[in-house]
Amino acid sequence: MKDRLDQQLEFLRIVDGLKRIDRMTRLIQQPGESARRENSAEHSWHLALMAMMLVEHANEPVDLARVLQMILIHDIVEIDAGDTFVYDANAMTGKAEREARAAERIFGTLPDDQRDDMFSLWHEFEARETPEARYASALDRLAGMLPNHANGGGTWNEHKVTVEQVTRRNESISMGSTMIWEHAKQWITATHHAGLIDSEADRK
Amino acid sequence: MKDRLDQQLEFLRIVDGLKRIDRMTRLIQQPGESARRENSAEHSWHLALMAMMLVEHANEPVDLARVLQMILIHDIVEIDAGDTFVYDANAMTGKAEREARAAERIFGTLPDDQRDDMFSLWHEFEARETPEARYASALDRLAGMLPNHANGGGTWNEHKVTVEQVTRRNESISMGSTMIWEHAKQWITATHHAGLIDSEADRK
């Protein structure tokens, strides 16, 4: 038992590094402020809380304990592989390989049974084939949209992303929750109507 | 259903504020670095991950889903009430009242049934009377000890806390896991032997 605890604590020290990985997304701004970027550790917490509060809106019944565990570990590979901005096609190249190597190293510090459990949770999340993974993944996208809507376009505006790109990127939310996607679409429309993001037609 | 989702999303926007609440504890340092303080949102994530990885060491069988939910919400009251440094007796005065008011306001944004669920989780955590709460609370203390041990005494050293104070503050870990407390005691001893914290006898 002693060796297992040592290995587990070593893993828990390594994952402290996720607090140093910044995402493109910013905190929800206060008036007149330019908010800092959020890191992947606090994002993972926010996402887990979303899962807890919105579970009644999942399209299918889900095992909340499994959803929460999937969310808590879903970004850990970024400690080695970094966060990849979803609208940056170049950066997306090689992402899968970088993340697989990271998982090997980081989950590999755990006792074998737990390493296997972590791989299984992470692959389940990435594959989006179970109700739990579809719901967790829907919230991961919602978590990107929430501050952008609240911050007057946020990174959508900063990076000149169009209505169509935002819609294509996020429409898989409906696979996890049609209710939530209906709501999130209103955020895109409202942001467009406020002149904070363009549609493709606006640019012609 | 629509009104419920609006209320839930408003709650999820408010709790973004937990990312702005700094604790005394610092991130685990890299060589030669003075690491920044950690905030309560990323701390809550780390703690939830600890609960997931160390559950085999709990003294009693626990419902992991309930433990995780308790942990995810345990610090939300700090958005209004602030973080209170556990070794600061003055700051601890009035903490319960400040936090009760904060819970009223923040959980109060939710639909009534979820507001009641949040109060019940939060009170359960604070009372430490169930196996889940004893285990969650043990990890909350372990989470304070982990970076202090890793950072050569950390805030214990910074604030000249003694071996006896650290021991008294954290010995309730044994109520949630004797296995983990046995290990954590070795961290205190090692930090003392390295001359990074004093015992009361050292100061005579």
Tell me briefly what this model is.
2 copies of one chain form a homodimer. By secondary structure, the first copy, chain A, is mainly alpha-helical.
Architecture overview:
The structure is a homodimer of 204-residue chains. With 204 residues, the first copy, chain A, is mainly alpha-helical. Chain A contains twelve helices and two strands. In chain A, strands 1-2 form a two-stranded antiparallel sheet. In chain A, helix 2 (40-53) packs antiparallel against helix 3, helix 2 (40-53) crosses helix 8 and helix 8 (131-150) packs parallel to helix 12 (178-193). The longest helix of chain A has 20 residues, at 131-150. The model of chain A has no long low-confidence stretch (mean pLDDT 94).
* Mean pLDDT metric of chain A: 94
Oligomeric organization of the protein chains: homodimer
Flag low-confidence runs of chain A. none
Radius of gyration of chain A: 18 Å
For this entry, give a set of tags.
homodimer; 204 residues; mainly alpha; two-stranded antiparallel ribbon; 62% helix; globular
Please describe the topology of this protein:
2 copies of one chain form a homodimer.
Chain A: H1 2-14, E1 22-26, E2 37-39, H2 40-53, H3 64-73, H4 78-81, H5 89-92, H6 95-107, H7 112-127, H8 131-150, H9 154-158, H10 163-170, H11 173-176, H12 178-193
Antiparallel strand pairs in A: 1-2
Helix pairs in contact in A: 2-3, 2-8, 3-7, 3-8, 7-8, 8-12, 10-12
